[in-house]
């Protein structure tokens, strides 16, 4: 069902998402394989930002990502259809072991043999400016490391930051399913049955940290006001031993501050890439005002949440002023650059800040912000392993 009408009744049940079946056929030998003693095994797989597979052997967790083939981009290797990237899940700079290289090679060879059978589904021309599709899914949690899961209540994001680097990977998933090509920020899949699927899974899986949402959506985007998928997922996690780690750039999260406060441990992160709301309006016109994000951080902190901030991408700002505002509200901050900046150079031009599109600007501004935060006792952390911040 596609549209913006009311949530469907049982008699008008949304379709089961076909994408999982399509990718499941591609990965079938791996999904059905019995792990070899002492070898790598499948820990999890995902279909919402291209094809992602997590392999594990002991304490070595390897993420393998299949993206649309693009010979201009560096990658681990290529197939006829995909660029393949492979790295350690929580330590991208650490070299893969010989056994990991072998396991990744076997996975890639399997995909090479089977990718020709992927269905080629014609993509229709868009018939509307935006699309909200209600779907059912069969899986909720994806394991990404020891005691780490992630959960996407939605796929796509109506906040629609033009600089978001997931757009091409998310479009590959739409291409595999034969969905119309729409700009990032103009489509969302709503997983209407996700809270019920999640409730079944947490009854059988080992408890751990549940990250919501890593890249491909924002759990508190505008549609959450209507569907409350994120809230219902949080309700399903209460008193289960699972720990939510919720990352958003939406102030709406403060509406759930009391619910978040019911968890023994919980982490909330807000994206705050600048202290200047005029800058925010140029780069994140669909995002909430900066002051509202500070208020949301404060509300969640008062509720007992561990609070963090993500300054990514580093936008024009006053580093001292931003550090002074963040320091009383957060335990840690991630600082990172604008990726693929040439693609969004026009945003800097429109803001009259082409100087901020340079590596020199990033190094100077990030360095000043880091120094100002550390001087106030705030930890600078990549926020890849949220468990360490919860201790």
From TrEMBL:
<dbReference type="GO" id="GO:0003824">
    <property type="term" value="F:catalytic activity"/>
</dbReference>
<dbReference type="GO" id="GO:0046872">
    <property type="term" value="F:metal ion binding"/>
</dbReference>
<dbReference type="InterPro" id="IPR007197">
    <property type="entry name" value="rSAM"/>
</dbReference>
<keyword id="KW-0408">Iron</keyword>
<dbReference type="Pfam" id="PF04055">
    <property type="entry name" value="Radical_SAM"/>
</dbReference>
<dbReference type="InterPro" id="IPR058240">
    <property type="entry name" value="rSAM_sf"/>
</dbReference>
<keyword id="KW-0411">Iron-sulfur</keyword>
<protein>
    <submittedName>
        <fullName>Radical SAM protein</fullName>
    </submittedName>
</protein>
<keyword id="KW-0479">Metal-binding</keyword>
<dbReference type="GO" id="GO:0051536">
    <property type="term" value="F:iron-sulfur cluster binding"/>
</dbReference>
<dbReference type="InterPro" id="IPR040086">
    <property type="entry name" value="MJ0683-like"/>
</dbReference>
<feature type="domain" description="Radical SAM core">
    <location>
        <begin position="152"/>
        <end position="316"/>
    </location>
</feature>
């Amino acid at each position: 069902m596609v549209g913006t009408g009311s949530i469907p009744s049982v008699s008008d049940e949304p379709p089961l998402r076909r994408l999982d079946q399509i990718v499941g056929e591609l990965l079938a030998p791996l999904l059905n394989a019995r792990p070899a003693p002492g070898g790598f095994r499948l820990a999890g797989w995902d279909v919402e930002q291209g094809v992602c597979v997590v392999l594990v052997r002991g304490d070595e967790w390897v993420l393998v990502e299949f993206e649309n083939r693009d010979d201009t981009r560096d990658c681990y290797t290529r197939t006829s259809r995909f660029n393949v990237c492979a790295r350690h899940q929580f330590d991208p700079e650490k070299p893969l072991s010989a056994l990991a290289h072998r396991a990744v090679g076997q996975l890639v060879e399997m995909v090479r043999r089977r990718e020709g059978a992927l269905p080629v589904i014609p993509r229709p021309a868009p018939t509307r400016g935006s699309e909200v599709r209600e779907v059912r899914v069969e899986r909720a949690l994806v394991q990404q490391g020891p005691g780490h899961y992630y959960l996407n209540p939605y796929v796509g994001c109506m906040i629609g930051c033009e600089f978001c680097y997931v757009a091409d990977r998310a479009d590959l998933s739409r291409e595999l399913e034969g969905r119309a090509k729409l700009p990032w920020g103009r489509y969302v899949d709503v997983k209407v049955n996700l809270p019920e699927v999640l409730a079944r899974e947490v009854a059988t899986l080992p408890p751990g940290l549940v990250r919501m949402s890593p890249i491909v959506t924002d759990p508190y985007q505008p549609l959450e006001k209507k569907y409350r998928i994120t809230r219902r997922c949080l309700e399903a996690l209460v008193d289960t031993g699972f720990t939510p780690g919720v990352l958003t750039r939406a102030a709406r999260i403060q509406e759930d501050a009391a619910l978040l406060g019911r968890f023994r441990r919980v982490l909330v992160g807000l994206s705050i890439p600048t202290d200047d709301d005029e800058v925010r309006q140029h780069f994140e016109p669909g995002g909430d005002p900066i002051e509202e994000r500070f208020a949301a951080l404060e509300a969640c902190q008062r509720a007992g949440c561990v609070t963090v901030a993500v300054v990514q991408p580093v936008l024009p700002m006053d580093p001292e002023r931003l550090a002074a505002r963040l320091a009383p509200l957060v335990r840690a901050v991630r600082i990172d650059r604008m990726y693929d900046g040439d693609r969004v150079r026009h945003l800097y031009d429109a803001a009259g800040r082409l100087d901020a599109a340079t590596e020199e600007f990033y190094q100077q501004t990030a360095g000043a912000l880091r120094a100002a935060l550390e001087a106030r006792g705030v930890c600078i952390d990549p926020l890849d392993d949220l468990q360490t911040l919860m201790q």
